[in-house]
Amino acid sequence: MALLLAIPVAGLSFLLLTEVRAEADVSGEISNETVTEKTVVPASGEAESGGDDARDYTPKSDLRGFEPSYLVYAFDNEAHLEFKVSVKYPLLETSVGWFGKWIGGSNQLYFSYTGVYDFFVFSDEAVRPSAPVISRLQNPGVFITNTRPAREGGGLKTVSLGWFHESNGQYIQDNQTFMNTANAQDFVSRGWDYAGLDFKFKSLDPWFTSGTVNYYLRLKFFCNCQGFGAIAGKEDDIRIFGGTRTAEISDYDGLRFTIDNFDWDRWHYGLNLRTGTSSSDALKRLSVRIELSYRVSNVPIKLFYFNGYGKDISTYHIRDRYIGLGFEFW
When comparing pLDDT for 218 and 41, which is higher? Predict the structure, then answer.
């Protein structure tokens, strides 16, 4: 079922890269950063509605970066390229009307999409024929962000609430298929919906570094459903791997805390902590991701290290360690 719900974006992802006009929000949290948008005005004599010259006109795009998007060389058990694209698009401005009457500040409704892919270009042909590209994450959603008025010294910047679908576009749903498939862990089907509640805080006078520091707190409330609530049940059964042990995604995810610094000369650092919320034991399953970027000219060079659960949602219950080095686009 997750395969039916996944968004096919192998080619679309690269097209999206050319459309984004703003820097992404960091850490994977829902937020509404101030962006600078480019409006393209037709040159004198160009036709806006047809004619030979109309093909030279590029309309303004409201497509924006969402989470950090990158292309990195990654290594865990097998070297590969990891590609992530994440964008958002404003659907409805809600600062006026009944919503704006009850909730102050600036309010914006967005559609978002995040996709993660692994490209096994370095793999042995005998192990992975044809250097496949494997879908790791398909994560569309709709959310509303309330941006609070600016305050001296920082404070609460945004509050966001939304509904999201998370899957990987794969097909293995039983142990028999798993046992008879090469590289079977890559193709275990996962899918579920969740409600996301996010708080972003900005500090303009941090005590441990210069520049601006953003703090994020995210809560995920998982639903036993998929397809934005249209399909009953979620796909997170780990008995596909064999054995009788049971678990669910909320044992390993549901609470996230992130610190990001963007204004520290050419450097940027990030720390992401994640844990489950289903029980006191789940709170002990801590996952850590550390990021460091340095901007060379206009290109950030990105280095990260991950230690924890859920590197890929197909194996959300297995502890992994891996590193990556490459380019961050926004």
Answer: 218
| DSSP string of 116-177, one letter each residue | EEEE-TTS-TTTSTT--EEEEEEEEEEEEEEEPPP-TTEEEEEEEEEEEEEE----B-SHHH
For residue 115, CA distances in Å to 95, 211, 307 come to: 30, 30, 21
* Vertex 16: Cα angle to 325 and 111 (nearest 5): 105
In single-letter form, the type of residue at position 9 comes to V
Is residue 135 left, alpha or beta, with left meaning phi > 0 and alpha meaning psi from -120 to 50? beta
Which residue matches tokens 């009944």? 98
Closest CA to 118 of 179, 73, 67, 51: 73
CB atoms within 10 A of CB 50: 8
Residues 6+ apart with CB under 8 A from 172: 178, 181, 184, 187, 188, 189, 240
Decide: residue 119, CB within 10 A, 0-12 exposed, 13-18 middle, 19+ buried. Answer: middle
CA distances from 142 to 111, 120, 163, 246 (A): 5, 31, 6, 31
Number of other CB atoms surrounding residue 9 within 10 Å: 17
**Structural domains in the chain plus CATH codes:** 2-33+61-328 (2.40.230.10)
Task: Note the Cα 214 to chain centre separation in Å.
Answer: 17
Tens digits of per-residue pLDDT, 63-117? 899 998 999 999 988 899 999 999 999 997 655 445 555 566 788 899 999 999 9
**pTM reported for the whole predicted model:** 0.80
Would you state the pLDDT for residue 276? 96
For residue 2, pLDDT over 50 is answered with: no
Angle, alpha carbons 323-327-290 (nearest 5°): 40
Report the alpha-carbon angle 124-70-114, nearest 5. Answer: 100
Asked if 5 contacts 166 with a C-beta cutoff of 8 angstroms, the reply is no
